[in-house]
Structures are given as structure tokens and as C-alpha cells.
# Entry
Amino acid sequence: MTNNKTIDPTIKAMLEISEAEGISTAFSRAEAMKPCPIGHKGACCGNCSMGPCRLVKEGQTGICGATIETVAARNFARMIAAGASAHSDHGRDMALTLLAAAEGEAPDYTVRDVNKLLEVAELLDVPTKDRETMEIAKDVAESALAQFGQQKGEILYLKRAPKKRQEVWRRAGIAPRGIDREVVEVMHRTHVGNDQWYESILMAGLRAALSDGWGGSMLSTDITDILFGSPVPLTAKVNMGALSEDEVNIVVHGHEPVLSEMILVAVNDPEMIEYAKSKGANGINLTGICCTANETLMRQGVPTIGNFLSQELAIVTGAIELMIVDIQCIMQALAPLSDQFHTILVTTSPKAHIEGATHVEFDEHRALEIAKEIVKMGIDNFPNRKETRIPKEVNQLVAGFSHEYINYALGGFYRGSFRPLNDAVVQGRLRGVAGVVGCNNPRTCHDASHEYITRELIKNDVLVVMTGCGAIACAKYGLLSPEAAQYAGPGLREICEAVGIPPVLHVGSCVDNTRILTTLSQMATEGGLGEDIADIPGVGFAPEWMSEKAISIGCYFVGSGVYTIFCSESPVANSPVVDRFISEGWEEQVGGKLEFIPDLEEAVRKALEHIDRKRAALGLVEYDPTRFGQSGDRLMLQFLEALEAGQPVSLYSARIP
Amino acid sequence: MSRYIAAAAIRGANRIVKEADDLLHKALKELGPEAPIQFPNTAYYLPVILGFTGLEVSKIGDLPPVIERAKALLHPQPEGSIWLPYLGETLDCGVATLFAEEAIEGIRFAYGQQPEPMPGLQLTGTSFTSPDTEGEEAGGYVNGPIDDIQLRSWGIQLVDGRMPGFAAIIGAAKSNEAAVQIIRELQQRNILIFLSGSVNGRSIIHQLMEEGVEMGYDTYIVPFGTDTISAIYAAGFATRAALTFGGVKGGQARGMLLYNKFRCFAFALALGEVDDLKYATAAGVLNYGFPVIADTVIPQILPTGVTQYEHVISMPFDDIEGKTDAEKARRLVQHCIEVRGVKVKITEVPIPVPYGSAFEGERVRRADMRIEFGGKYSRAFEYLMMSPMDEVEDGKIEVIGPGFEDIEEGGYMDVGIVVEVAGRKMQEDFEPVLERQIHYFINGASGIQHIGQRDIAWIRLSKTAAEKGFTLKHFGEILHARFQADFGAIVDKVQVTIITEPELYAQWLEKARVAYDFRNKRLADMTDESVDTFYSCTLCQSFAPDHVCVVSPERLGLCGAYNWLDCKASFQINPTGPNQPILKGEVIDPVKGYFEGINDYAKVGSHGSVEEVAMYSAMENPMTACGCFECIMMIIPEANGFMIVSREDTSMTPAGMTFSTLAGMCGGGIQTPGVMGHGKFFIVSNKFIRADGGLKRVVWMSSFLKESMGEELKAAAEREGDPDIIDKIADERVATTVEELLPFLEEKLHPALSMPPLF
# Structure
């Protein structure tokens, strides 16, 4: 029964065990419970107690008279607001951590990337000349925090977008004024008896999404870089084979790096390692799941054992002493599940308690102390370990890309620029670029859509950047290793070989999707690809989305001018009018559009058509892969092989007899 | 990059940086930190290091921080089955390699090991860096780094496109035949050729020596050395081009590199096996946007971006189409030029010898000479005149009188070359402009040497050229082809008559002399007051973006190559080209030479960096300079006057600086009161620093100027009312310091001493 549930052999194995042992998982629960057919397509309104109203017939309205359009739009806008609030609140916490560090109240944190601090300071209008780092950091934190509460004007990061994009936002009246304000406003608009025109509801939703992408999330990424260092490429292991048979396995799961970075310090503490040995373990093995994993992977190379749908199955291995969770995407099911094993589930965020879990509230003022306390709990639990069934599968990936590093990668210290990337698109070596992001969803075969879409895109010479659970998915199948260039089209392969990169670049956690925005902005300003993000031959994908954050992300990409495809049924399918508005209507106003296309082949075809249309609009040469592929080591290696084999080859001829 | 190249380059970089570090430690111990390090005749220290870092290395003790920087740029090799990105890292390793290589060459200079000895090599032209190249007995060394003087003297050709750029050749060609053909192809396109490196101990320098190819500045072939390290001199040349002409300062690495990417047409050609150090060096030059082409099997890097076009190209020599090595070599060079992406115009000249500006400097020695026209024993003249359209038959080339077949080898004869042109846009004023081109056009033929002009022309023809079938008629072929190609916008028809028949010869000589005389008078009568239009010259803006020359009848361009008539003709030829008419407008100050129209133009033309220009003063708002000036004048406050040093003069001056150092102060389009670059014939102009006192303010002048412009200076002295002034002006033979200068001036009662103070 597991054949169509996942393409990951470790998950398959674990599911078989779960089935045999009668363990409930998201997979089995999804099978047992079909999605609510009314809520699923945005037909249910529960915004007041006159209902809930279900609008299942054509022309039907709610008790208040709200139309099918209004209800679908309100539900959708509230998804955006919830998603944006999650990311932005995460960003706020990062800013508060920076402030605490700058004020000396969080002694375990410091500014690790001073250059990034200076760069961000300039963007946030914080003076830097002749000032101490911590002084600047304090002002940066305060300026960032002010962005959340700002009431008027525009959030500062909008100026990072190409000029033309900023004009689009102003013209459409959706330039965010403050981060919190836009979320609150969507909640207000969608209250009973308020905004009852789907267009204005959805435009407000778009503005809230932009306050996430160009506000809360972007601040989060930047401040995380300041505190923990901007990522640079590194290699790491991925999949459950990275769990250790003889060491204390501690898993971090969730979305914030603040605690996990300290856990990493703690597990490397010689005293802790000694303590682990005293308990019969060979050491401590730290791994991660979901986006906390992505954060520690990007900067420290901590192995990742899986994505969203792996969280329960990791515990089923019986090898995890302790799982620390912080915020977001943590299944409540972990608590009862961990009770069936020796695993201790530790919740740490005051915003994310789970009944039945051990709660050790995190406090950045004594971060390392708390981290050590938690690690010690894990070590103490090692002697309780029983039978384990750790799958063998483990792959390698290269992670750690950011727009700053890409800039360096393409020209070195002295000649860094986006020119080679833009050139590649202009000449047609790269047909275009794509961001493939998002979650897992047990309603579709686990990882299959990520893998299929990404493979198809690179085969068609589309350079892919990934974040979040999608990145982890493709990493497991080797697509994030430089050797994956062999699966790429001839032009993309040439680019990969020239730069030494995989055809799929891991740019971070889901909050780091903003790295894609800054990358696209830099491409648009480098020249040759128009003047706006919307001019770039590119697409966005969320193949296996499930969270409201994904909706917010998708919408801020649309609002930034990107054609974005979600591979599922539309959550506003109940209203073809609204469905069309978020596609054609938004495209007319902001250049990007959102479409829900469950058929993967169709999704890829439409994406490529869109890319080709954008190429044509820019007057670029038609994409023709047969013109490329002549560079690289292949011929040279064949030549050297022939030479080794003693064949009569000459340095002056590539012909091998 | 490719992983193979990245690995090799990173290996090479790590090794050469270590080598430089070891050598530095040895030098610190043996020579001490104070031992001077200097490339000859350059104001740019070790230029690559200066350009990238701003560090001014002048002694061994300055090098440790450079090596530290090099080490900081190194990266580990990409290894295993999963590797990290390497393009940026390899480019950085390339820069580290360049630092190391230049440091090594610097230390070798300190040890007296550079330039590299090369027994039997005789360089042509005035090589300033190789010791003792003057005279028949000299030689025995390769050139080493190119000096600032040569760089500047090539400046105008580099900027006006006559010299599109350079090819840095590393290694040895597959055969001597291929080596010669590669060189000839590049020469025909006027591309400078830099030679370095070797394969298994054999260098292209050896190959060319064996084939008797003349090397040296005059033939555009500069041998740097037989090791790969010496290729650093090519990077040094490129760096200095940016510093000299681009207004880029030391340490502005990105600006320097982008200047080269966009403005310098250059590429590296690796002949023979490419080893780690060659890959590492190639990675360094890729930073400049210069592509690398190899004639062997190496991995290709075809995506673009760091370079304008492909990064690395492999053209295995045996796989190139062609029956002979020469044919293959021709295609190889053609492809190199395509890769760098510049269209090089070649004028097909139907003559039996190779043709191109690279042959302009070739000398024909008496021993190699078949015949000469003019010189000591005979006379040659050339005369270009405009004729009515119906009297000129385009392409008609006539030789009247006997050829030189019957003259004995090494002999001489009289020849007159009469060029008649016709065209709707042709003007009488353009006759001398076009006539002066005859010198360049004829000189372009391999084996022909042309000196002088008018009735003092002197042409030599080599035995080789004669053996290949060059006859008098071919002078006509050259002139017809080139006038049509280069001046087609103003001449529609060109007819050439070569006269050796004595009676006709005498008649035409007489006619020509009348015309010369008429032109002289006309030119002498032409003053800044007599015209209402000056011309701009922004030819150099491709190199010096903020510099603008204003050319008036009495002030020629600072490069010496463009006078007012040239600019006028150039405007006719290309109305949207670099020479645009500027209406003088209202005269604001006739003495200092302020004109409303000129000021307005200067503001726009310099993109706002210059507000006002005084045409006749060096003290107040002097005209800016690009970098290819013939002379530099500078105030000597103690003497209340100016000194003028010429490009050819390498000696110390009373200003305490050599030409090279001074040049650094007044190039790049910057106004520096008291310092000014100018053309040498400006010195004899009636408007020469008129506001500051004219020729009488000159207290010191390079002897080269005194000698090469003797007659003109004498006339100017008389005009200034002080016929003996030239004798009162000191030169490098009597004074190279102010202390030596002042007593000389006092003894000679130089007028500047009693003139009003300059400040």
C-alpha cells in the first residue's frame, strides 16, 4: 500500500514498519480521511456565527448575502494573512534576538557577518561611519522592528526591487505600509460585513503577501545572516542514513536557527561528548528536519534527515533520543508518537506548546545553558534506546547559496557580477530560471512532484533554485549535487560545469525565499533581461504545498511579477471568477499570476511556454538546445583515458582512433 | 571554468605562490628589505600589483604584504565526487598567480636576472628596457616588460583602432611554419604580439629567431621571456593601459579589469601543451576579460560573462582545416579574433608581400637592400593633388620610364609618385592631409621602408620583396587600395603615376615644389583668429573617457597626429565621428584663449569634469590629456619658467621626475595647473602658452626636441624676438636638477628670470 505514497525508499521502509506495527502517521490518516469537499475549494464561510455557510450551488449566497466570490476571496486572503504572519513573526523574533545581542543581553550571540550588517544598515537608513559594530547592530535591530509597526509610507526594503517593479506596486496601490498593518488589515477586511468585493480583498491580500516577502521574511533572512553568517557553499549529507547507530541522535525540527545554532555548539562541547560516552554512546549526532534543518545545513552543514512528511517516520526508526522543535510545521501527532518510542519530544517556543511534550522554554538570554540542558536530556535518554531500524540511504548535496555568493561565484572577488548568468539566459544556454519551493502533502505522492518538476525543468535547461522541504526532497535524489549536471540540458550543463554548481541551487529555508527575490532583482538590474522581475524568463513552483505560508510565498512571488504554479486543485475552485482573477486579473495588474495545475505535465508545459513567451518579449533568440553543450571536461577526459590506455593520440587532435 | 581546468589552475596557483614566497624569503635574506625593485621606465611600480591593490612596490621589503594577499586569494582544489563551486575561486587563484608572478619578476630584476638573456637575438626599434640595443653589436636579451614610453607612443594607434589590441602568445607552435604564419596573420591585422613561455624548453621566440623574423617594438613583436612567468608583462601592459588612459587609479581593481574587458582587444593564445602554471596564469588573465585559445586538446569553456565571448577555446591544430601548417595557422588566428569579438578591417592590397601596419616600423638595412629611391644618392618625391572628376581614371596605375630591373643590387634611382584624386567632397585643404598618408601606406608593405615626405622622401626596397616580385607599379596598387579604403568618403577616384623618366620627372618635381610652397604659406597664414571653428577630438575617449582635445589651427592635438586640417578632413569623412566642429563663439579672453563655445563644449565633452579650458595657458585651466602626449611641460617655480620633456627622453628632469612619472600626473583627463601634455609642434606655435609668456618661458627642453625641430625652433625664436633663446634653454646634458639648472640660466641670462612671476 506504500507504492504511491512516496518515492523515498527510506520513507517506504518506515511506512511498511508503521503499517505492520499499527502506527498512525500523516500518510495513514490522509488515507482514512478525505479532504472536506466544501472547505477544500473555498466554499465554506465560518467568519461569523450566522453560519458556517456552505455555498455549493451556483448563485447561492451566505446568510449575510456574501457571494461565492466574496467567500472564496476572503478565505484565500486569510490564508495569505496567516502565512505572512507566521513568516513575519519569525522575522520579528530574529530582530529581537539581534537587539538582545547588541544590548549585551544575549551573550551567546554575536554579529558573525559584519559585511552583511553594514549592507543591511544601509538599506535600513542606519548610519555606519565611525561606529562600533554593536552600536550599528542595535540600530539595525530597532529599525527592523520599526518596520513591523510602521503605519504610513512604504516599508524600506521595497527599494531593493527594480525601479519598474516599485512603480507597479504604487500604481496598483499595493506597496505595503507596514508589516503588521497589512496582516491586520486583511483580517479586518474579511470580518463579517466589511470588504465584500473579491478584487479589493485579493489586492489587499497581495499587499499582505508583499509585506511578508519584502518585509518580514526578508528581514528574517538578513538578520539570520548577520547573526549566524551568510551561507557559502558546503557539502552535507541528507536522508535518514545520516542517523547514527552508536551515537546519541538529537534532531532539530521547525524553522528557527536561534536555538538550533546553540544546540550545535552544545553537541560539540567536549564535556558533552564525554558525558555521552559515559552513557555508552560513541558521541552525539545532530541532524535536522524541515527548515530548522535547512538553516543549520546552509550555514554549518548539519545533516538533514528529511522533510515535513519525514518527521513522524524519523521517530519510527527508534534511533532518536530527543527531538527539539521550535515553531511551524510541527505535527501534534509527534507527541503521542514519541510516547510509543523512547524519544523525548521537547517543545521550546512560548508560541508552540504541544500537549504531552516536554516543554523547555527557550530564553535567548541564557541560550547555551538551555541548549546544554536539552542535549543532556537527550544523552540521558540514550540508555533507553531499544531496537533501531535506521535506513541505509544517504545522499550528498551542496548547499549554501545566496545572491551574495552567486555574485561571487560568477566572477570571483574582483569580477563578481550577475553578468554570466544573464548572458547565459540571453544566449539561450539557460532557457530560463525557476524557483521550486514548498512543503510536502500526503494528498500527493511524497516528493514525487518536486522530483518530477525539477528534473523536467533542468532537462529543459531551466536553472532551478530551491528552498525548504522541496530542496530537501530533491537533495535526497541527488539533484543538488554537482554531478546532477548530467541530467541537465546541454546549455545548463555547460553553465554548471563552468561554475562548478549543481543544476539545482539550495538557497535556504522557506523564509529564505526572499533570496530568490533579491537574486531576481539583481538579474533585472544587471541588464539584458528587461527592467523588471516580470520581464525575466522565469517561473515559480510549489508542487506539494500544504501550509498557509506557501500561499503567502506564492502570492508575494506573483506580486513581484512571477508566474507561479501550485500543483494542486485550486483552493478557490468554487469561484471560477476568483480563480480567473488571481491568474489573469493579477497578471494584468502586477505582471505575475497564480495558477493551480494538478497535472504535472501540463504544469511543466505551461511553465516552459511562459518562459518562451518572456524570451520572445525580450527579443531573445529562440531556445535551441542543439546549439550548446560543446564545453566541459568530457572530451578532455576521453582523451586522457585514451592516452592512459596507450592509444596513439596526439595533443594536437581531439580525434580518438 | 571546467573542473579539470579549475583543478589545474588552483594547483598551479598554490605552487607559484609558494615559489614566490620562498624566493621572497631568500631575497630578503640575501638582498635585504631595502634592495630596490623596479621595472625599467615605468611610473607604475609593479603594475599588476599596483592596479589590483594600490600597493606601490619599490623594494623587496614591500613584497610581503603582496604575497599575503596572494595567499588569501588561494582556494583548495575541487575534489572527490561532490565538489564545491569553483569559478569565482579559480579566478581568485588566477589573480594570486599574477601577484606571485609579478613579485618573482620584480625580485629577478633586483637580482639582475631580467630581462632574460637570449644569445643572438637582436631587437628592432628603440627598446628602452633591453640594455644596449642601440648599435650593431648590441642585443642578446629578450625585451622584458614594455616601458611607459612605448606604451604611450602606441597610445594613439591603440585608441584610433589602427592597433586593435594584443595577442599574448605562450608556448611554442607545432612547427616553425605555423609559428611564422601565426605571427604574420597577427601582424597583418596590426595586433601587438607578446611572446612568452615554452614547451619542453622550446619557445616561439626560438622558432621566430630560427626563421629570421624580426622582433622588437617596430615590428609589433615583443618577446618577454621563455618562461610562463614572463607572461605577466602582458597583464602589466593591460593594467597600465587602464591606469594611463582610463583614468583608473591603482587599487581600483574592478574598474581596471572592466576597462580592459570593454576597451582592450586582447587574447591569450596557448601553443602546445598547457600545464598547471599556464592554466593558473590563464585564470588570471580571464579576470581582464581576455579569452584563452589553445592549439591543443583542452576542455572548452564556452559560456560567456566574465569575458565578452567564450572564455576558453580549444582548437587542436591537426583538426583545423587546411593542407599546410600555414593554412591551419591562418584559420587559428582568424578564430582567435572572432572569439575576442572585434571586427578587424583588413584592406586587401594586391601586392606580392605581406601588408599591415605591423610592418611600418621594419627597417631595410643596406646589406638587405635591393634598391633605394631618395636618400644620399638619389631623390624621390611624392605629390598628391586634387583633379577634376573627368580627368581622373580610378585605378589607373602608370609607370612612366624604366623600372629598376637594370639597376645593380644595392643601387639607387630617382622616383616621383604622383597621386591624383577626385571626389565630390574632396577639398584642396585635404591634399596635404592625404599626402602625409603616403608614408604610412607604403610603409605597411613588408620589406619596404619609407622615411620622410614631399621631396625628401626616401624609400628602400629589400631583396626579399624584390624576389617576391615587388615592382614600382605596386606602389600605385598600395596607394589606390588604401586611399579608397580609408578615405572613400572624400575620394571617389584615385589614379597613380610613378615617374622615372628624367624629363617628366623634373617637370613634375617643379610642379610639386610650387604646390609645397603654396601650402606652406597657406598654413602659416592660418591662425586661430582666421577661422571661426575649432575641432574636438574625442578619439581617445574610448580609452580616456573624460578627456577632450580641442584642436585649433595653431594648436595641434597633443598626440601630434592630428592638426586642424586633419580634423576637418576627418569630420568630412565621418560626420558623426570623433572630430566635431566647435564654433568658437564669443571670445572671452584672447590672451589666455578662453572662448565661450569651447568652454561649453568642454563641459559636455568631458562629462562635466572640466568647466573651462584656456587654450593658451598651462597655468590656468590647461587642456587635459589622455595619455598619448608627445611632450609634457611642467612649471619649475625656482626658475620662473617651464621645462618640456619629450616622450623619447628617459633621463631625469629638473622637476625631479622622469617623463613616465610626470605622465602619471597629467593623463586620464585631469586638469593639473602647471602641468600639461602637448604635441611637440605646439612649442613652435605663435600661441604656445601665450598667456604665460610663450617660448621665452621655456628654461629646459629635452635635447631630442632641440635636435629634431632645429629649423622650426630657430624660426620661432626669431618670431619671439630672441633669436638665441634656444641656446639659453638647458637640456638633460647640462642639468637634471634645479641646482644645476639655475646657474646655467643665470650664466646665459635666460629671459624667464626677469619675467613677471608665474604665480
Notes: The first strand of chain B starts at residue 123 and ends at 124.
